[in-house]
Specification:
- The protein is an alpha+beta fold.
- Helix content is about 20%, strand content about 40%.
- The protein is built from three helices and 14 strands.
- The strands form four sheets. It has a seven-stranded mixed beta sheet.
- Helix 1 runs antiparallel to helix 2 and helix 2 (about 105-120) packs across helix 3 (about 120-130).
- It starts with a helix and ends with a strand.
- The model has no long low-confidence stretch (mean pLDDT about 90).
Length: about 180
């Protein structure tokens, strides 16, 4: 519903002659036009391991972005964290990704697809993007192995646009999907 509401707000702003604005409805964003004196809106992507920090930024123009993850709403039971996004195939909380961020032409598409990718997990999410959603970009954050806190997988169209913040460059590995 948030994505739909954002898209309606964008339509109304355009009808009123507004050519530059950022609409934010609970983390579902649409960046309309350009901010004054800049070539894109720079939007931060929240660190799923520390929700008070941003680990990366991406530039947007006339695009929406939404992130799904289990770092905002969860419960801890016996030291294990269970997120609020359920996998309908198992009836249990989705596992495999820490977060999924989608950049799309509409907020509704970004909102729905970010949750879908999160539920699917890394391999199926990458396959869905490759086979059916070449027109969207995505950032998938996976739990890390070894010394890395997390792995970041991004679609090829974000190369040169997705920027890891300096303090994360040694801790998070950034890889671009090959398709």
């Amino acid at each position: 519903a948030k994505g739909y509401a954002v898209d309606r707000a964008v339509t109304n702003l355009i009808a009123l002659g507004i050519s530059s604005a950022m609409i934010d409805l609970g983390g579902n964003l649409f960046c309309l036009g350009l901010p004054e004196g800049r070539d894109a809106w720079r939007v931060g992507i929240r660190d799923p391991l520390d929700r008070d920090r941003l680990f990366a930024t991406v530039g947007l123009v006339n695009q929406a972005v939404a992130t799904s993850g289990s770092y905002e709403r969860f419960v801890e039971i016996d030291g294990r964290r269970y997120g609020h996004i359920m996998n309908p195939a198992t009836g249990r909380p989705a596992e495999g990704l820490l977060s999924a961020t989608v950049v799309a032409r509409t907020a509704m598409e970004a909102d729905g697809l970010s949750t879908t990718l999160f539920v699917l997990g890394p391999d199926a999410a990458a396959a869905l993007l490759r086979d059916h959603y070449r027109n969207v970009e995505a950032v998938l954050v996976l739990p890390g192995a070894g010394n890395a806190e997390a792995r970041v997988l991004a679609t090829p169209g974000l190369r040169g646009n997705l920027v890891l913040r300096a303090e994360y460059r040694g801790r998070y590995s950034l890889e671009f999907l090959d398709f």
